[in-house]
Amino acid sequence: MPLRSLALASTLLLTLAAPSAAKNKNKPEAPPPPQWQEFHFSDRGFVASFPGAIKPKAASTPVSGQNPLLQHEYQMSLGDDTVYSVVVLEYPEGRAPSPARPSYYLKVLKAYAKGSGTRVRKKAPRIIDQRPGYEAMAETGRHKLDHLVDIVANADRIYMLVSAGPRGHAKSKDAKRFRDGFRMLGGEPPPRSATSALPE
Q1: Quick one: fold of 37-194?
Q2: Distance from the CA of 70 to the CA of which of 4, 58, 82, 154 falls in 20 to 30 A?
């Protein structure tokens, strides 16, 4: 190829590449991955990891029609479509279901689905922090949001872990990280024989 033709070809390639480069330059960068941090909530008996540096504060309210049952919620949002939440249902001493059975967890799950406008599509018993609990995956209408919900009891408290995000979130690494970062403080787990048949 003559030098003149080579120069013209090089100029043409640069011209064609320029719009693409400008387009990539103007394209917003992907947000950095969240920085997970462990927080202790000793007054409510648990430890949890959230994707942020600011410790969530409790929003406490009595549960309608269930007086004197109290609900404490610790929530952190990530962007516009992802949220992580620990809900603590606190009974007066000696009034919590003991032991909490699958039928009770299903009742709580049903109430959650009704309140959040979700449809439960998968549910099963699950070991959560060495204790028998329950896990469910739910979705909003037209599958816009996925929810991973875990419920477990300890003494006079029922804990519900909820993470919700875009389609596929319930099976994501972050949803599982939130679930697996939860620990309860105080109280001995039941004997292994009582939980050995449940999936972890």
Answers
A1: Protein Transport Mog1p; Chain A (3.40.1000)
A2: 82
